[in-house]
Design goal:
Blueprint lengths: L3 H8 L3 H12 L3 H19 L4 H7 L5 H12 L3 H6 L3
Helix pairs in contact: 1-2, 3-5, 4-5
Length: 88
Amino acid sequence: MKSPADYAHALSVHINHLNRSVKEATGKTTSTHIANRVAQEAKALLLHTNWNVSDIAYSLGFEYPSYFTNFFKKQTGMSPNQVRSSTV
């Protein structure tokens, strides 16, 4: 599940209701919460597994590793390889 629509469907609520409720309760959009959670999971996989970046990208539902790298860099300000090498 990577989109607000996926979560709305799983919760059996209209997407507008989900988006409004999440924004009202947290001050952040549903999409922001999803992106933060995916980035957090990616960071954990980078730090605690020896999976290569492509395997992590695919496991998180990205069609192409380059999309994952761009997403991760936008979310964290660092490339996946920079995160991984920062713990060495």
